[in-house]
Design goal:
Strand content of chain B: under 5%
Distance between the termini of chain B: 30 Å
Order of helices and strands of chain A: HHHEEHHHHHHHHH
Mean pLDDT of chain A: 83
Strand content of chain A: under 5%
Oligomer: heterodimer
Number of helices of chain A: 12
Number of strands of chain A: 2
Low-confidence stretches of chain A: none
Strand order of the largest sheet of chain A: 1-2
Structural class of chain A: mainly alpha
Shape of chain B: globular
Distance between the termini of chain A: 35 Å
Low-confidence stretches of chain B: none
Radius of gyration of chain A: 19 Å
Largest sheet of chain A: 2 strands, antiparallel
Number of strands of chain B: 0
Structural class of chain B: mainly alpha
Mean pLDDT of chain B: 86
Number of domains of chain A: 1
Order of helices and strands of chain B: HHHHHHHHHHHHH
Largest interface: A-B, 32 and 30 residues
């Protein structure tokens, strides 16, 4: 366990060193992230210009959801996306061999291969949105609610990561999946809206198939202090089940890996 | 000129063969254009209780299905190709050919149209079946003009991509610049939210900017949100933008190619 923590430290330092090399490029990326975080508020502003509340969500409450969306997007693009895109590249070129030869768990190694530290700026954007939302609400979350929200954030990150592992596992079978990542990002965009606004089939899809509700709506409700404990526990169980499933699929697909040259 | 014309059918055939060869990839690309469907679900849910502005549920259905159709038919991807080929130096191969590279790119993009049309056919069918009777324009003149606006929308998309892509001759972050363009497009074209629902000044700004003529204008014309006179006036503005962007893209291209030194070859 300690060994893996140390490994994580090494991998992170390596990413940081790379990031420091391309300072301007990454600063541009970071600023773009902030631009998108601000810009993603526009449809929300239009919607609440016409309505005081939608499906039980007032403007500041929906703002909290957008805050979590910005945060999760930062996690996705800063910690999950870069590593897993490079796995796809490894599989296609057959250089995954070098990773498999190393005396550590392959899934751990490929998942921590690359971080984009500048994405921390997204975190700042999210905090600013939270600040604005709670300022409008005129009250601040209690420590208990913050704790619950952080726990759900961990769940959300785990689910996001599991979905990504599933997508990458597909690369062992179909090879060309870089645009599957694009497809996933486009679906993830819907997570900026509180899930309960959607109805019928869409709500089902966003809760169970691609659990966007778990990623942004539940943590937001926890932070607002209105998430029923039962649903919080269900989210925990769901995240654990998702993670386990992804791990099993990964183990099965890696067995199918035959290096490219042979 | 006549040489270029003779090369055209072959270029189109090659492009079509390519789009069919990578059909799974192509399909995934098109499926990631799902934003109008999400917005459709969202706004119809909001409009259940009472209409938003003058938009009821069925108006939103018409608007977003038309948006999806227009977006699918006016898509281009030349910027990504251009960016990569300039950086990797493979653009050199294109420069050797006796056809203007922009025209070659345009052919590749146009050649994918039959496939795009096939994929957007269900969208059109759904549009006509659900709200066709009440929410599509009946004006024969506007219906005749619609394909022209669609072509115009595609031309603006393509030329803007070519222009921003040509900046890759000078700077490395042309891709980032294009992301900003996409962000502006999302709001000012009516792609995310119908422009009518914005405060008045946004709509006024959108009429002056090119984004609305890439998407919102053909959509509004099709679903009958725009009358005959303003539609024809907007058509002139649209083609004015096309002329301006064409001139800009061509001159940026000419200056860029002079700077271009294929490295790595």
């Amino acid at each position: 366990m300690l060994r893996y923590l140390r490994l994580l430290g090494v991998q992170f330092r390596a990413s940081l060193a790379v990031a420091m090399q391309y300072r301007v490029e990454f600063l541009v990326e970071g600023l773009l992230g902030l631009f998108w975080a601000g810009w993603s508020l526009v449809p929300l502003l239009v919607l609440f210009d016409h309505r005081r509340a939608v499906a039980g969500w007032t403007f500041p409450e929906a703002l909290v959801v957008i805050g979590w969306f910005a945060l999760m997007k930062g996690v996705l693009e800063g910690a999950v996306n870069p590593s897993l895109t490079s796995v796809v590249e490894h599989i296609r070129k057959g250089t995954l061999d070098f990773v498999l030869l190393k005396p550590a768990d392959a899934q751990f190694l490929v998942s921590t291969a690359k971080f984009e530290p500048w994405r921390v700026l997204d975190l700042l954007g999210a905090l600013a949105i939270f600040g604005w939302a709670f300022h409008l609400l005129g009250r601040w979350p209690t420590p208990g609610h913050v704790l619950a929200a952080l726990l759900l954030l961990a769940c959300a990150a785990a689910i996001l990561y599991s979905i990504w592992i599933l997508v990458v596992s597909a690369a062992f079978f179909v090879v060309k999946v870089d645009n599957l990542s694009f497809l996933f990002s486009s679906i993830f965009d819907a997570a900026r809206w509180p899930a309960s606004i959607f109805r019928g089939a869409w709500r089902f899809v966003f809760t169970f198939v691609v659990p966007l509700a778990l990623m942004t709506t539940y943590p937001a409700e926890a932070l607002l202090g209105r998430l029923a404990p039962g649903r919080g526990l269900a989210a925990l169980a769901g995240a654990a089940a998702f993670g386990l499933f992804a791990r099993l699929v990964w183990l099965r697909s890696i067995r199918r890996y035959t290096s490219a040259s042979s | 000129m006549s040489r270029t014309l003779r090369a055209l059918p072959t270029l189109l055939r090659v492009g079509f063969a390519e789009s069919v060869a990578y059909r799974a990839e192509f399909l995934v690309w098109l499926l990631s254009t799902n934003m109008p469907l999400v917005m459709l679900a969202l706004w119809t849910a909001v409009a259940r209780e009472a209409p938003v502005g003058r938009f009821g549920q069925r108006d939103f259905v018409a608007y977003y299905l038309a948006t999806l159709f227009v977006r699918l038919m006016t898509g281009a991807w030349v910027i990504w190709e251009l960016n990569m080929e300039i950086r990797q130096g493979t653009l050199a191969f294109r420069l050797l050919r006796p056809v203007h590279p922009l025209l070659a790119y345009a052919c590749e993009n146009v050649a994918a149209m039959p496939l795009r049309l096939a994929i957007s056919a269900p969208v059109v069918a759904l549009l006509v079946l659900t709200v066709g009777r009440t929410h599509l324009t009946r004006d024969p003149l506007l219906l005749a003009v619609f394909p022209l606006t669609l072509l115009g929308g595609w031309l603006i998309t393509f030329l803007a991509m070519a222009l921003i892509g040509a900046l890759a001759f000078w700077v490395e972050s042309a891709g980032s610049l294009f992301e900003v363009w996409l962000g502006l497009f999302g709001v000012f074209s009516g792609y995310l939210v119908p422009l009518e629902l914005f405060p008045r000044w946004v709509g006024a700004a959108a009429r002056a900017l090119p984004f609305r003529y890439m998407l919102g204008y053909p959509v509004e014309l099709l679903v009958g949100l725009e009358g005959r006179a303003p539609a024809l006036r907007d058509l002139a503005v649209q083609w004015g933008w096309i002329a301006a962007l064409l001139a800009l893209a061509l001159s940026a291209w000419r200056a860029g190619v002079r700077r271009f030194a294929a490295y790595g070859g």
